[in-house]
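RESIDUES AND SHAPES:
===
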Amino acid sequence: MTLISSRFGKYLTSYDLLKFFAVVTMVIDHIGFYLFPHVVELRIIGRLSSPCWMFLAGFSKSLETGKSIFFGCFLLILANCLMGTYLLPLNILALIILTRLFLKYMGPMLFRRKEFVFYCCLVMAIVALPSYYLIEYSTFGVMIAFAGYIARHRGETAFGPLAEKLFLAFVLGFFVLGQTAIFMFSPVYVAVLCAMIAMLGIFLYRFVPEEYPSATSRLPSPILWVLQFCGRYSLEIYVVHVIILWGVSIYLGTHSADWLNPPVFYKN
C-alpha cells in the first residue's frame, strides 16, 4: 500500500473502496424509498451510506466545491420542480456544499479548541430534527463531517487520539438516535443499526488515502472497473439514479406527482 498520488490514477484506492460501499448502500436505500417503501430492511442498510459521504466531505483535503456538485444539486432541485415532488428538504449535495464552505473558512479556528466544537455541536444537536425539514441529514451530517475534518488534520487540531475516537463515536451515535426517531425503527432494527454503524465507525477511524497497486494487478478487469467507476463517478451516479428512480416510482404509482406544481415540503 502506498499513498494515493492522483484522484484518477490507474491504481485502486481507498477512496474507491469507501465510495463503492457508499454507492451500493445508497442505491439500496433509494430502491427502498422510491419503489419498496414498506421494506424496512432496505432503509436500514441505506443508513450506512450518508455517514460515508459526510465523513468524506469533511475529510477532503482542499474542501473545494467544484461546479459539478453545484450543477448536480441544481439539477435535482429542477427535477423535483418539474415532477412536482417537493422543494424541501434540499438534497444531500446542498448539505455537502454548505458543510465544505463552512469548514474551509471556519475549520482552522473552530477546531483550535474543543470548547468551540462542543458549543457548535450543542447548537447543531438542538436544531438537528427541525432542520431535517429543510435539508437532508441536516446537522446530523455536518457533525459527521466534523469527524472527517478531525481525522484529516490529525495533530493539527485540539483533538488527541482518544478525543477523536470519542467524538466520532458521539456523532455516529447521535446519527443513529436521529434516524431512529425519524424512521421509528423497532428495537431489533435499532440493535442491528447500532452494530453496523459501530463497524463502519471503526473503518472510518482507520481510513487514510492509499492506493493499492498489488490489488489493482490481481483483480479481474470487470471488478476493478466497477470499483473505480463507483468511486470516481459517484456524483453522476447519485444524480442520474435518483432522477430515474423518481420517474419509475411515479410511473408505478409508488409516489405521486403534481407536474410543475411541487409542494414546499415532502409529503410521505
Observations:
- Residues 6 and 190 are 39 Å apart (CA to CA).
